[in-house]
């Protein structure tokens, strides 16, 4: 793990397409990797190591786009909210565009 290793986060979806291009709200944030427990870190690493397979989408469910620039370049994953650790959810804040 590098000194300032951070995850870049974006929450989208839901019933009204929250966070989408036409949405007045944006939900995003960053989370320092060092804040994650060993279990949470292992889970996140697993998302990036699954060779591009994404968990099934849930109708009207929220999804989190996670980017790990320092470790995985510009690669990102989209994960259903139900699989996202609480530390990451707490790092995402809602704001007006």
Automatic annotation (TrEMBL):
Pfam families: Emfourin. It comes from the Bacteria. InterPro entries: Emfourin. This is Uncharacterized protein. The lineage of its organism: Bacteria, Pseudomonadati, Pseudomonadota, Alphaproteobacteria, Hyphomicrobiales.
């Amino acid at each position: 793990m590098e000194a300032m290793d951070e995850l870049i986060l974006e929450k989208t979806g839901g019933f009204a397409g929250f966070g989408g291009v036409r949405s007045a709200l944006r939900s995003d944030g960053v989370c320092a990797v060092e804040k994650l427990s060993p279990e949470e870190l292992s889970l996140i690493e697993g998302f990036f190591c699954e060779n591009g397979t994404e968990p099934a989408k849930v109708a009207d469910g929220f999804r989190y786009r996670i980017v790990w620039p320092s470790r995985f370049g510009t690669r990102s994953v989209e994960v259903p909210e139900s699989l996202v650790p609480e530390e990451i959810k707490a790092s995402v804040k809602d704001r007006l565009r």
